[in-house]
Amino acid sequence: MRIESLKYYIQSSNINFLYGSGISRPYLPTLGNVENWLTDLFERRLDGLVKKTPFIVVKASIIKRYFEAVMLPNVSPKGTAYDKTIAEYRAFLSIWNDLMNKRNNRLVNKQVNLFTTNVDTLVERAALGHGVEINDGFQGSLEQLFDAGNFQKTISKTSLHFQNVSDIPVFNLMKVHGSINWREDDMLIKNDPRLLLVQSVETQLKKMDPSLFIDTIKTSASGGIVDKTMDELIAAASGLGVSDVDIYKPFLEQYSKLIMINPTKRKFRESVIDHHFYELMRQFSNNLEKENTLLFVMGFSFADEHLADITRRAANTNPTLHVIIFAYDDGQKDVISNNLNTSSVVPNNNITIITPSSIKASNQDEKNKRLVDGISVFDLCSINLLFEHIAKSIDIHYDK
Q1: 178: Cβ–Cβ under 8 A, 6 or more apart, which residues?
Q2: Which residues sit opposite 390 in a β-bridge?
Q3: C-alpha distances in angstroms, 115 versus 28, 50, 361?
Q4: Which stretch of DSSP H or E encloses residue 11?
Q5: Burial class (CB in 10 A: 0-12, 13-18, 19+), 53
Q6: How far out from the chain centre does Cα 49 lie?
Q7: Pick from 296, 272, 281: nearest CA to 92
Q8: N or C: which end of the chain has fewer CB within 10 A?
Q9: What is the mean pLDDT of the chain?
């Protein structure tokens, strides 16, 4: 795709992003096999193919890995990898705040919808003191309550002398799988900015002997580190010699209090009765049905079947929707295509998967060549450079 085409879409569309764990690198890892593991494990348990004790041991070990890798680092974030990741999030917010202010189409609003399956708090931390407006669905002073209806609000500024009113850019942060800073109280979702629930899970985990958990990784024949298969996990759990699985109960019960959907392919069926999660999925669907809508997808392979179904259905029924997906590398294109089932006919031809190779091939002109030749993967840094390039070109257009 030509960069000029991206610029055209940005200037005239309702802007939406869908991003996943790939954008939080290098500070937080991607989910890896966690989703497939948990899905496989629960299905085996339902089919009677795994006994209770190894089931609990494997479940606790997978959740421990997920908790320690993705959630716990948010409590006291620090280090070079964190600084780098936060810097890219802040750059993203700054670039898009600039882009929304510069758009010359007065018929579209200045809201950017950020839909994410991530449960971390990196965007909120990046926005802190950064001069951009983040709407995370919470409202209140002494105690903040979550209400998806807050995403319908706009923010405007009135000039001092002539009372002119103008909208200002707002980032609507919609966490479709919940968040580690959410807590439930009397059927209400409240903000937990200090992540006290996460810390309470850590407390329970520290009380347990590490030998009660199995390793989820192994050394391959070539010397690399790879994930174990489910058969290997179950075999390791069976050989652990655990006699009373109730020892895992305090940790698992405390973990279950986190207001988030576990990464399994059954997640939506398990939580469809929960109003808040259902409402956020509905928000995603409704926004894709709007006229002249643009959905950028980053760090997300559409392994989530429900979001894949909603996206494909919207692309088929809304000819004014354009879905632009940044594949991390060239190999990810087939993975995304299979998950979205784009091998069959897409009636409106409005789903585009951009790879590092394809962006280079389409932009070998003098103006864009230097930029695209430096792209080897589409991480947030590379995507930011692309959007920053577009923002600067709008500056040039206005100067004329």
Answers
A1: 119, 258, 259, 260, 261, 276, 277
A2: none
A3: 18, 36, 30
A4: helix 3-12
A5: middle
A6: 33
A7: 296
A8: C
A9: 90
Q: Look at the block and give the residue holding tokens 């580690």.
A: 180
CA–CA distance, 304 with 306 (Å, rounded to integer) = 6
Q: Residue 288 corresponds to which tokens in the numbers above?
A: 């894709």
Sheet of 351-354, strands arranged across: 133-135, 170-175, 111-116, 14-19, 293-298, 321-326, 351-354
CA distance 224 to 233: 18
Report whether pLDDT(87) > 50. Answer: yes
Cα→Cα distances 281→3, 19, 34, 310, 354, Å: 30, 14, 22, 9, 25
pLDDT of 161 strictly over 60: no
Which residues contact residue 272 at a Cβ distance below 8 angstroms, ignoring those fewer than 6 apart? Answer: 278
Q: Which residue has the tokens 């928000």?
A: 283
Mean pLDDT of 69-73: 96
Per the CB < 8 A criterion, the answer to whether 248 and 93 are in contact is no
Residue pair 173/114 in contact by the 8 Å Cβ criterion: yes
In the block, residue with structure tokens 């600039």:
98
Q: Does the structure show a pLDDT above 60 at 81?
A: yes
Separation CA 258–CA 277 (nearest Å): 13
Cα dihedral value 51, 57, 60, 62, nearest 10: -90
Instruction: Evaluate whether 228 touches 218 at the Cβ level (below 8 Å).
Output: yes
What's the sign of the alpha-carbon dihedral 13, 16, 22, 28? positive
**Looking at residue 158, what is its pLDDT?**
56
| pLDDT tens readout for residues 368-399 | 999 999 999 999 999 999 999 999 988 644 44
Query: What are the sequence ranges of the domains in the chain?
Result: 3-399
Which pLDDT score is estimated for 260? Answer: 87
Q: What does the pLDDT read at residue 347?
A: 86
- The pLDDT of residue 31 is 78
